[in-house]
Design a protein that fits this description.
The protein is mostly beta strands. Helix content is 13%, strand content 47%. The protein has two helices and five strands; from the N terminus they run E-E-H-E-E-E-H.
């Protein structure tokens, strides 16, 4: 599946970025890192569920959901 994301969205699944326009993600809920992480198709391509889009927009290909996602693994 392809998921479209924009500013303010909570990421619903893990995936790989296929399109990004100034996309910055807050991964502090998983990593503790307070800096926003810039995502694009060349570097930092992994999107993790449970994180928030803080700037920009984009699309990603879903690779894992539910208990198979990074958030699901941590919760189990």
């Amino acid at each position: 599946d392809i998921c479209c994301i924009k500013y303010g969205d909570l990421i619903p699944a893990d995936g790989i970025v296929i399109e990004a326009s100034d996309l910055k993600i807050d991964e502090s809920s998983l990593t503790g890192e307070t800096d926003l992480i810039k995502k694009n198709m060349i570097e930092n391509v992994i999107i993790l569920s449970g994180t928030h889009v803080m700037e920009g927009n984009g699309r990603f290909m879903v690779t894992a959901v539910g208990l198979n996602s990074q958030t699901g693994i941590i919760m189990t």
